[in-house]
């Protein structure tokens, strides 16, 4: 390792940067809730037009979203309530069926095929092996009555790890990483505080060593000091494990602390995206300007 | 001599639409060249747009018009105004450093790790990065008992020294400095000048804003005087009428 004077960038490094491909590629993702009618067959990309169809009441919760995520990168997704943030990550995690669009993940065996078109069984395989998800509500990500170690074991079984001894060790390591005392690893999450539950959920999401982690409002509703702890944990995980993450939050403060790049959603549309410092210091869309100035 | 940076017709305006519509332009139609290994100072009165120029080079601001050609070792000649965000990210890690005018504390990160974090994306292990960070904190006269503390509670001068330690931990191809010595005592200022000289010897090109003409005179090979530029433009306009 050199003093990395830029003149000393070696060819291997150059080649690595040149050949870098996105881990996750999303193109034209749209999601409609409701039956739809002749008036709302297609989502419009017109900001003046709302996302709700005035004839049938259906909603295009996500409209034509396209973006890339690189290995190890943190992409922030910010926007007001109802802007489609949760719907987006749920579509990516196959919790919701995507209406139109394409997604590919480079670390998944066939790299470029549209994962939204896979069979239910293949989708389950993909989410168990290459993704982790942390929900705002720990009830969605954890089974509350079974032990914390059991929750992690469940995720490991799903990802085809069957060696019981190493599963127990892995559960202990993971829970230690999120600062759950070892003595409590066999307690069920329902005994824990909200912040602890969130930390167990994070450790469960990481159990299969996913290259991609999705986090939806994971600090919302927690006390400030507990929020800080969860945010620090996420930051440390990224530093240590270099997992790529999509961090959804309505709170620009969270995004500022974590995200390299940021996407601003409004009524299901990306109204602005850029490097996080640019979004914060040079917001161009009136809605982003409003968000930024509410932060200061 | 070969150029490393060439700005052509660079301009920036902000369209603000908060309480009412507003258009603000810190600078327009600015062109300059920087030779490889050179130190270019930018001078001009407060509010004339010095920081905005630097932020456009670093892409914290998106330039509204013009081109910024940079001789990159990763990408060859590249227009920083149009480079993709991913390209900018790589350039910021490997080739372009930036010292902001005011330190932005990241909550709950120690001074040591603020500096060490600069090195992690370059492939340093945490221990290697912290070793290097300690050397820099020492060079910048930051008392050892502050290394594990959070810079949010530091004085302005101490914060700025952490900021500088972070930037000086690497040898980028281009270093952008916004008033780096403004809040420093004399001894630290001398250390900073020495460090800048070392970096220059190692081949780093620098572009810096200083309010202190004395410091600027000591380091700069070329000075971009915005006031003169403005005046000559006005003259041209008059002549053209
Ligand atoms: N299952 C559903 N059925 C019908 N409409 C839905 C459903 N889920 C979401 N929506 C609608 O889709 C739009 C986007 O909702 P979504 O939950 O994605 O927003 P969000 O950005 O996550 O908001 P918040 O910040 O409040 O969590 C909203 O108008 C919402 O009412
Ligand atoms: Mg939501
Ligand atoms: Zn309709």
CATH H-level superfamily of chain B: P-loop containing nucleotide triphosphate hydrolases
- The percent of residues in helical segments of chain B reads 25-40%
> SSE order of chain A, as H and E?
HEEEHEHEHHHHEHEHEEHH
Just name the CATH architecture of chain B: 3-Layer(aba) Sandwich
Largest interface: A-B, 32 and 37 residues
Main β sheet profile of chain B = 5 strands, parallel
Strand order of the largest sheet of chain A: 5-6-7-3-8-9
- The first-to-last residue Cα distance of chain A is 40 Å
Q: Would you identify the CATH architecture of the largest domain in chain A?
A: 3-Layer(aba) Sandwich
- What general outline of chain A do the C-alpha atoms trace? globular
Name of the level-1 CATH class of the largest domain in chain A? Alpha Beta
Number of domains of chain B: 1
- N-to-C span of chain B: 37 Å
Beta strand count of chain B:
9
- Ranges of chain B with pLDDT <50 over ≥5 residues? none
CATH topology of chain B: Rossmann fold
Give me the CATH fold name of the largest domain in chain A: Rossmann fold
Instruction: Work out the helix count of chain B.
Output: 8
